[in-house]
Amino acid sequence: MAILLTGGSGFIGSHTAVELINAKEKVVIVDDLSNSSEVIIDKIEKITGIRPEFRKLDVADKAALDAVFTEFPIDGVIHFAGFKAVGESVAKPIEYYRNNLDTTLTLLEVVRAHNCKKLIFSSSATVYGDNSPAPFREDAPTGNCTNPYGWTKYMIEQILQGVAKACPEMSIVLLRYFNPIGAHESGLIGERPNGIPNNLLPYITQTAIGIRDHLSIYGDDYPTPDGTGVRDYIHVVDLAKGHVAAYKYACQNTGAEVFNLGTGIGYSVLDVVKAFEKANQIKVKYEISPRRPGDIATCYSDPSKAAKLLGWKAEKNLVDMCRDAWRWQQNC
Ligand code: UD1
Fold first, then answer.
1. pTM of the model
2. Which residue, judged by its Cα, is nearest atom 4 of ligand 1?
3. pLDDT in tens, 30-74
4. Closest ligand 1 atom to the C-alpha of 126?
5. Is the separation of the CB atoms in 3 and 77 below 8 Å?
């Protein structure tokens, strides 16, 4: 039996494919390659020695997806596919709601038709909004999202909770990612943002290598130790291993369960810049700019539920994340 990864050639999907293959699972990847390329499949093979099955398709294409379930015996699905650029989602809300909801609903119909019982979903800490102070526990209030991307994550969580209720033999795991950064230590796979990066680490690596003139730090007047925003950065390989643990959990349980995937440690923007400079012996030019609309001061996880029920904990530190991100930037 195989595990199907939708969006499996993207940043988090490709790292998860590697960890699943390392854990001796058989992996089938579907991806429309709208934000990745088939070269990633070669890279996964290079890292693991095993080539995952790959079919190029849009998850909203029901007939094509159904054919994959007919071709391969699919034991469960990890659903990564979706649009993910926060700023773009504000400009193109209809496209974001249409794409992220359509793909999920189509996937659920096909999953049901093939009697598949396990589903892991890529959710985000963005669903916590600014409803309560960090650290965020899974039972903290959700909603109040600041952009359509965040709302699609919130809505899909609601949809999946409903499916789990209606179908008690299913096992659905919602993984709320904090801030995934870094890259595989081989330097072969990593994050490849389209155009100007919105997220902090890709902006830092592109500044360090000279593609961008300087980093703008969005606000130094937040109520945080040094005034810059605090986030829970997690190495993408740790995050990928969290999916392997979640899949094992789904094999042994039914119902819907939510887990934070974070380190539980908050670092400020300046902490990250300093750690990057120290880890890689390179300067990052920066300027303080006004706050970015929609940002909150502090966001970090309480990761204890995942430690207790999944037996999973992030192991890599900020230096590892900065070093691996820089190696990838130099290679890509
Ligand atoms: C953002 C999204 C979140 C999404 C996540 C991963 C928002 C409000 N949230 O999280 O929904 O799941 O990305 O894609 O957009 N920063 C700078 N300069 C930069 C870039 C970022 O100072 O050029 C600061 C930000 O103000 C923030 C921190 O760095 O304090 C992290 O920002 P970012 O990497 O964009 O992630 P989030 O905003 O936390």
1. 0.98
2. 126
3. 999 999 999 999 999 999 999 999 999 999 999 999 999 999 999
4. 11
5. yes
